[in-house]
Every structure is written in C-alpha cells, then in structure tokens.
Write a structure and sequence with these properties.
The complex is a heterodimer of chains A (307) and B (449).
Chain A: H1 2-17, H2 19-51, E1 54-57, E2 61-64, H3 68-74, H4 77-109, H5 116-128, H6 131-142, H7 148-155, H8 169-194, H9 198-206, H10 211-222, H11 224-239, H12 243-248, H13 262-271, H14 276-306
Antiparallel strand pairs in A: 1-2
Helix pairs in contact in A: 3-14, 4-8, 4-11, 5-8, 6-8, 11-14, 13-14
Chain B: H1 3-24, H2 37-45, E1 48-53, H3 60-69, E2 73-78, H4 84-96, E3 103-107, H5 111-115, H6 137-143, E4 153-165, H7 166-171, H8 180-193, H9 207-217, E5 229-232, H10 237-251, H11 263-271, E6 276-280, H12 283-290, E7 298-302, E8 315-323, H13 330-342, H14 344-352, H15 361-364, H16 367-370, H17 382-390, H18 403-419, H19 424-441, E9 445-448
Parallel strand pairs in B: 1-2, 1-3, 5-9
Antiparallel strand pairs in B: 3-8, 4-6, 4-7, 4-8
Classes of the chains: A mainly alpha (307), B alpha/beta (449).
Chain lengths: 307, 449
C-alpha cells in the first residue's frame, strides 16, 4: 500500500508537466456522459425551473408570476399532507428494511450460510422484478375478495385484514417496497463487507474477538459509508414514491387520492389539471425537501460518529 | 472558440425557448369559410399520409375501406393508449407543436376540453354541417360547439340501460325495477335474501357513470357554459337527488362500492356478486367477453326512471373522430373523419364487427342490426332496445371544458363519500367548490347558481 502511494506521489509532478494533451483526452472521455447528462438532465432541469416562474392558464395565456407558484406550494395543504405521508412511510419502512438488509449481508458474509450464492440471489431477485409488475402482483395478493390472503383467511374462518383499506394502505405499500429493495440494499452492504481487509479480522481474532464481536466492532463500523449510501437512496426513494400508489389507486381509488404522495400530486397537476407550471414548482420543492432530508441525515450521522 | 461563451449561449437559447414557443405558437389551420368540391377533389388526389390516433381494436378494417375509396391517401393508425393516457399524450404532442396526429379519437366529454385550448378544427367548411340529419340527435348535439361549430364526427354512443341477471331476479322473485324507488326497494330485498349479493355496484372512481345519472335526472351542471365563462351547478335539486339516492343506498349497505374495471370487479361480475350493471349500449358486447362464464343469464332493460311512466335516458361513453387544428392536411383529415363514420359499409362494419354502438340513424333503423338476437342475453334483441333508448337521451347536456379535472375531483369528493358511507350531498358542495377554485385559477369566470 505504502509503495503505491509513493509511486503516485512521484508521478504527480510529471503529469502536471503536460496538462494539455491529457486534459483534452480527459474531456473526450467524459464527453459522452456530459452530453447525455446535459441534454437529458441539466437542460430539462433548467427548463423546469424557468417554467415554474410562469403561469399558463387555459383562459388568458401565459404570464410571468415570479415566486407565486412557490408561495402557493408552501401553503398547499394537499402537498404537505403528502410530504407528511411519505415522511411517515420513510420512518416506518426504511429502518426495518435496512436492519434486515444488514442482517442478511452479515449472515452471508460469515460464509457459514449453506447455499450462500443461492440465498444471495433469492434475496436480490425481487429487485429484478420491475416495480410496476411488483405493484400489480401485490395488488392481486392484497385483493379483498379473491386474493390468496383473503381466501386463506376465509378457509380458517377469520376475516382477512383489509390490506387496501385506509388504515393499512401505507403499510401495504411499505411491504411492497420492502420486498423489492431489501435485496438491493443487502447487495450494497455485502459488497462493502467484501472490501474490508482480511488483516482486520485476523487481528481481531488474535485479540480474542468472537464472530459477534467482530460483526459489531469491525464490520458494522466498516459499513458506515455504505449504510449512508443506502439511507440516502431510501430518503430519495421514499419521498419520490409513485409507481406503487399509482397502480394501487386503480384498486382503491377512495383511499389513494390524487395527492396521496407528492410525486403523484405533481403528476396529476400536470397531466390531469394541466397546471404544468405549478407542477414544476411542486417538483422543485419536493427536490428541496429531499435535499434537506438527506443533508440532515448525513449531518446527524457525521456528528454522532465524531462525538 | 471559447467554451464558456458557447455554454452561455446555449443556456440563453434554452431559457428563451419556452417563451419563443409560446410566442410564435404552433402551426394551426385557419379554416376557410367554405371548401369547394374542386378543392376537396384535388386534395384527395394528392398523395398524403394521415396520422390517426385511436384505441379501437380492428379499426384497420374501416381505414382500409377509406384507403380503397381514396387510393392516394394512406392512413397510419397509432394506438397511443385508451382514455386518460391517450389524452395526456395527445395534449403533450399538441403543446410541443409536433408529433400530434391529424385525426384523433375523442370521447364526447373531452370535446369542450380540447376545444377550449383551440386544438380542434371546425369541420363545417369541409361539409360536416350537412351531416346532422344522419345522426341521432343527442349525438350530434354532443359534437356541436356553442357557436354551432362541428368539432368532431360521432363514432359510437353509449345510451344508458340496465343489464341484469335474470336468474338472480327470478330466484328471489324480484321484478325488473321501473323506477329508482323500485330499484332501492329491490336492493333492500335482494341483499336481505342473500347477503352475498348486491343489486348493483357503485364504482367510486367512475365519474362518467355519475355524470350519466345526473344527465338522466335532468341536472345539467355545466349547461350554459361558453368560452371563458363556466357555469357550475352541482347543488341543484336534481343533482342532489342523485347524490342522496346513491349515498343512501351505500349508507344502508345495500350496494357494493368496488372500483370498476379491476380484477375484483371482473370476478364479481362472473361470480354473481352484482345482480345488475347500470350501463350503456357498449356494455352488452363488453360483458360477453368480460363475464363469459355467465352466458345466457343476463337480460337488458331500460334505465329505471325518476318518475313512473317517464322514458328518459342519458349517455355514458361513446366517442368521435376529431381533426386536430395542427393538421397539415385539413381536407384529407376532415374527409377521413367523415368517411369512416358515415360511409355505409364502414359504419356497418363498426357496428357489427367492432361492436361500437352506432350513432347513425341508418344503422339504428337497419333490421339486420337491430334484429340480432344475442345468445348471451337469452336471445334478446338488445340492439333494438338500445336503439329505442337512443331517442330518449336528453339533448342539452353539456360537458365542462375541464372535464378530466372534474372527474378526478369527483373521485376525491363524492365518489369517496359514497364509498365511505359519508354525506354524499355535502360532498357535492365540496366537488363544486374544488371545480370553482380550479376553474378560477385557470382563468375562467365561474358562475354558480
């Protein structure tokens, strides 16, 4: 390790000597990405931001309204109810998912699990099922009249819980997301565990640490970065919840209204109500919420680890 | 070249584009006062490609008839989805200024919504004005604008009737309800006799059904709306009556409130959970495949009435062919829209092979159509029954120019209230309040009464 570091340091001045050619090559290498990134991400983003400062009416045309769409959004009860709902969803779903993903990753990493490859694949495979298909499938499973749970409950003479009712809907969606993404998070954590240098384990073993102690004192701290990544992904995924409620809406239109989640709300604003400008503002505010949410989590975990 | 400058220029171009788009606008047809036969003949001899968006399966047959009659015109049929996804894509293409079709399928209730955004071509100059007599009156009034424009050509209709399970009715000694009072009474008797069965299902997200109920009751919530002026009246006695009726039935648990066109709903139709489906003329052929296991058990009756002895119906669904104002081929597009919906062979094919319920008098009076005895309905002449109902549909019912939003708000207010056994009449006020707020935001002047 030290040898590599020294070599890198030694090469550094040489590279500085001919910045032009290698610089140009660098640009060339990132160009394909930057072009697509600009065309498909930055430009639409800037366009949407610009768009959000106007108001286009069905009657009366388009006018510049400054921050009016944003002030409306900040006072929009429907939007904030949706944000609150996905916030609750996050608190409900993510801890269970990450703890279980961590557990699976640690279990597989011990190498003691039989058929480890098979187990790893089976836990991961739901992620390979497209979210839309998963939601359709679970929609069938949750069915109040003909779903397998309902039929099973009927066979043993009890009434099945109303999975698609107002009380359980958020939990039912959480379950779908849990099913889809536990394996995904597990793979991230598992890959991070593989990168932990073996010397640490050997040293710990020499010091007399058992497998639990190793898991708690070496593996989990080593996973801090990966867990952070999972957490940020989960913040984004939770606050952008769309597919599952959108598809279950067909089955339970009176439970999932048009503003059930902020993304669903923005979609309906744009494509049902033709309020494109306001939808753009709502989307930016949602982006801001996610940014703040992610930052708060990073800040909290960083501070805790320092103290 | 300094990369910084070019980047800034690109940014400026990106910033300027929406305004530029809004300012120059898209290409639209400035319709002439009248198109002469010579102009039409010339256009129809010019090789042209038309783009046609529709979700009707098998429409290629009618398109082929048109292409045979006008060999120089080819029609590219595109299925861009059914209902809302279709409209969302259509609207996006129209806004973008390119990619929109020449002709698109529009349901009746969507015509004012696309007329208000000036996306439809008035077909009067292209000879459509003379077609009125060929169509059932209500269908023609549905495609007519407030200033007499012809916004589209009717393709099929959905006059309302009631499909019922004859076997269930007979088993419990229930007669076909002639009035809504009878209907409520039968609902109570049936559910008491067999708690597993409901007389009907009220689908809480089916604004179109509820609109048909309002229509029949004589409520015309958006009647008198014109251009930027929107009239909303969802609290009239007629409208309240409808809300109270369905709200009460639900509150007493005499009807089910399942979402329609879902798996559980299809299964319920097959298993006999619903003894009736209050549904339009397109329902009989739909049910034949959707509830195939119940063949022979269903019959069709007219819609129950608010007053005994009346014969009033309404309409749910049905659609039209509309020409987009952005078309580069207005004549060919207009001729196409008229041809497929009025040509004898084409309309016959639609009625008998695509099972679209016809809006043209010629087919409705044709014994080979009305005389069909459908085995699924115990040999009943279902088409003849709906042909009679077609003439009892009130003509003046008007749609709002914001109909998608009106339907979405219905689900969130009245539909949810009925499903949750809450006050449906109060929910009508919510519905109206939401419509008012939205319409004012969109720049309409809202008049309530």
């Amino acid at each position: 390790m030290t040898a590599t570091a020294q070599r890198q340091r030694a090469e550094a001045p040489a590279r500085r000597g001919r910045p032009n050619r290698s610089g140009r090559a660098g640009y060339l290498f990132v160009a394909p990405f930057m072009i697509v990134f600009t065309a498909m991400f930055l430009v639409p983003l800037i366009y949407a931001a610009y768009f959000s400062f106007f108001r286009e009416q069905l009657v009366g045309g388009t006018v510049f309204v400054g921050f009016e769409n944003y002030t409306r959004a900040f006072g929009d009860e429907q939007l904030w109810t949706g944000v609150g709902r996905v916030g609750l969803f996050f608190l409900l779903q993510v801890p269970i998912m990450l703890v279980l993903a961590l557990f699976f990753a640690l279990a597989l990493d011990t190498g003691l699990v039989r058929l480890a490859r098979f187990a790893r694949l089976s836990i991961f495979v739901p992620y390979a099922v497209p979210g839309v298909i998963a939601a359709l499938m679970w929609g069938y499973l949750y069915g109040p009249d003909f779903g397998p749970f309902a039929q099973l409950a009927e066979k043993i003479g009890v009434s099945a819980p109303d999975f698609l009712g107002a009380d359980l809907m958020l939990g039912s969606i959480a379950n779908i997301v849990f099913w889809e993404f536990t394996g995904y998070n597990m793979v991230i954590l598992f890959a991070a565990l593989r990168a932990v240098p073996n010397e640490l384990y050997e040293a710990a073993a020499v010091d007399g640490a058992g497998p639990w102690r190793i898991a708690w004192s070496i593996k989990v701290p080593a996973l801090r970065g990966a867990l952070m990544v999972c957490l940020i992904f989960s913040v984004i995924g939770s606050f952008q919840l769309f597919n599952e409620p959108n598809l279950l809406q067909g089955l339970a239109p009176t439970v999932i209204d048009s503003a059930y989640t902020p993304n669903l709300y923005a979609y309906n604003l744009a494509f049902v109500g033709q309020e494109y400008n306001y939808a753009a503002a709502v989307s930016f505010i949602l982006g801001l919420v996610i940014l703040v949410g992610s930052y708060v989590f990073m800040f909290l975990t960083n501070r805790r680890s320092r103290s | 070249m300094n990369p910084r400058i070019s980047r800034r220029a690109g940014l400026a171009a990106a910033l300027a584009s929406p305004l530029a788009l809004a300012a120059c606008g898209r290409h639209t047809v400035d319709p002439p006062a009248n198109v002469t036969q010579d102009q039409i003949d010339e256009a129809m001899r010019t090789p042209t490609e038309l783009n046609f968006w529709t979700w009707v399966p098998g429409i290629e047959k009618e398109v082929a008839l048109f292409e045979k009659a006008y060999p120089d015109i080819t029609v590219d049929v595109v299925n861009a989805g059914q209902g809302n996804p279709h409209y969302a894509k259509l609207r996006t293409a129209l806004r973008a200024g390119n990619g929109a079709p020449d002709v698109a399928q529009l349901e009746f209730q969507m015509i004012p919504s696309f007329a208000i955004t000036e996306d439809l071509l008035d077909l009067r100059p292209y000879g459509a004005g003379e077609l009125a007599d060929q169509f059932v009156e209500f269908a023609w009034s549905q495609v007519s604008g407030t200033d007499g424009e012809v916004w589209a050509i009717p393709q099929d209709t959905g006059p309302m009737g009631m499909l019922y399970r004859n076997d269930i009715f007979e088993a419990h000694g229930i007669e076909v309800p002639a009035t809504w009072d009878d209907f409520a009474e039968s609902a109570a008797r049936l559910h008491e006799a067999d708690p597993e069965v409901y007389l009907t299902n009220f689908a809480p997200a089916q604004g179109a059904f509820f609109a048909a109920m309002l229509w029949q009751a004589g409520a015309n919530p958006f009647g008198g709306s014109a251009g930027p002026e929107l009239h909303v009246d969802l609290t009239s006695p007629e409208a309240e009556r409808v809300a109270r009726f369905w709200g009460d039935l639900s509150e007493q648990d005499l009807i089910s409130v399942d979402a329609d066109f879902t798996d559980p709903w299809y299964q319920a139709l097959n298993s006999g959970k619903y003894a009736t489906w209050v549904a339009p003329a397109w329902a009989p052929s739909f049910l034949t495949s959707a509830a195939a296991s119940t063949a022979g058990l269903w019959r069709v009756a007219p819609l129950p009435q608010w007053e005994a002895g009346q014969e009033v119906s309404s309409n749910w669904g049905g659609s039209t062919s509309a020409v987009m104002a952005t078309t580069r081929n207005p004549i060919a597009a207009a001729v196409f829209a008229q041809f497929i919906n009025t040509d004898r062979k084409s309309t016959e094919t639609m009625a008998n092979e695509q099972f679209l319920y016809p809006p043209t008098n010629a087919i409705l009076e044709d014994p080979t159509f009305t005389g069909q005895q459908l085995d699924f309905y115990g040999g009943q002449e279902v088409n003849a029954l709906f042909a009679d109902i077609s003439t009892t549909v009130a003509e003046d019912f008007q749609w709002s120019p914001i109909q998608e939003k009106v339907y979405a708000d219905f689900t969130d207010t009245v539909g949810t209230a009925v499903a949750n056994k809450e006050d449906a009449v109060a929910a009508m006020e919510d519905w109206q309040a939401r419509i008012k707020e939205y319409a004012e935001y969109q720049g309409f002047t809202v008049r309530q009464s």
